[in-house]
């Protein structure tokens, strides 16, 4: 006869067990069997609720919400810093602009005085009219464009967002180049930084720079203004060894550069692709960055408006170092202004 196993929960009462749970290895009477099953059912429901809660986390992203909050706060703080830095830069530009306007106003007063005196005395010629017209155009340029001595600098040593600030360079440090000419048609202004063709008639006129470039890389920034798009104007380099008297005639030396009709000087340097190239042709105003690489023996220019770039390799036998800036003006009212000049390396 087998031994009697009592109900685990009714052991003190001597009630025999009728069901043994294989999960917990306990024996229960009929009453406690049902209660034990209900208990297991309740435990399963709690686990299922916890399972549902975890499943909801897959869509709620609560795990990363704190990180998102930190990122959002960083974004807000960064925007505030950027806006403040930008506003400070705007205020600096406004201050510099006001100073430049005052300086331009002084030049305007001088021209206005000359015009009034000419009107009263009737002592003026065609060349005076052209000169005043060009000078007024230069003043208008100054009112619309900040001086090249004022630049926006970005601090690339910073992290994700570069800091910016406004710098004002010494004007002499960016304009060590000056313009000279033996042509009687050429007049100068702004301490020989502006060359003007004032006639009295259309005629070839050459303007050269005083600086010599024998090594390193150099940049000259020019504002070129043509009276019309009908006649040719060019910006070039020449060898110091080339006499001015031979520029327009046969010479053992050549000049290298570009014409306002997009032709190349000298013509044999033109490429097949240059035939259909259009950048300067048909325009009367150019902002040009002219680059001279003496070490690599080549020159190039960058048109600030069209973003076009062109390059020429220089035959050092035909254009020996040192080089000098050479400008060709023909039409009355044509002018060239030196905006800046500096050595890059």
UniProtKB/TrEMBL annotation:
- Name of protein: B box-type domain-containing protein
Q: What is the source species?
A: Rotaria magnacalcarata
């Amino acid at each position: 006869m087998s031994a009697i196993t009592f109900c685990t929960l009714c052991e003190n009462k001597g009630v025999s067990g009728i069901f043994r749970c294989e999960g917990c290895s306990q024996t229960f009477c009929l009453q406690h069997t049902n209660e034990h099953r209900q208990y297991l059912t309740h435990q399963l429901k709690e686990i299922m609720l916890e399972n549902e809660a975890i499943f909801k986390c897959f869509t709620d992203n609560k795990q990363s919400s704190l990180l998102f909050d930190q990122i959002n706060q960083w974004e807000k703080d960064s925007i505030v810093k950027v806006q403040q830095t930008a506003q400070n830069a705007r205020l600096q530009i406004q201050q510099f602009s006001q100073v430049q306007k005052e300086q331009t106003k002084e030049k305007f007063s001088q021209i206005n005085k000359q015009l009034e005196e000419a009107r009263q005395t009737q002592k003026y010629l065609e060349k005076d009219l052209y000169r005043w017209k060009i000078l007024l155009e230069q003043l208008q340029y100054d009112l619309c464009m900040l001086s090249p001595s004022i630049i926006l600098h970005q601090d690339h040593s910073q992290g994700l967002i570069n800091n910016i600030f406004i710098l004002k360079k010494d004007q002499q440090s960016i304009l060590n180049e000056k313009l000279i000419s033996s042509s009687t048609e050429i007049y100068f202004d702004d301490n020989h930084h502006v060359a003007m063709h004032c006639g009295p008639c259309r005629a070839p006129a050459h303007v050269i720079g005083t600086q010599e470039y024998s090594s390193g890389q150099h940049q000259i920034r020019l504002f070129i203004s043509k009276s019309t798009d009908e006649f040719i104007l060019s910006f070039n380099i020449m060898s110091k060894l080339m006499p001015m008297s031979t520029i327009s005639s046969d010479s053992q030396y050549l000049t290298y550069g570009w014409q306002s009709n997009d032709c190349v000087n000298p013509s044999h340097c033109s490429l097949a692709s240059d035939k259909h190239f259009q950048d300067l042709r048909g325009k009367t105003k150019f902002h040009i960055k002219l680059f001279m690489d003496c070490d690599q023996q080549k020159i190039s220019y960058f048109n600030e408006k069209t973003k076009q770039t062109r390059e020429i390799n220089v035959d050092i036998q035909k254009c020996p170092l040192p080089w000098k800036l050479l400008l060709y003006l023909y039409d009355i009212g044509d002018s060239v202004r030196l905006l800046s000049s500096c050595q890059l390396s």
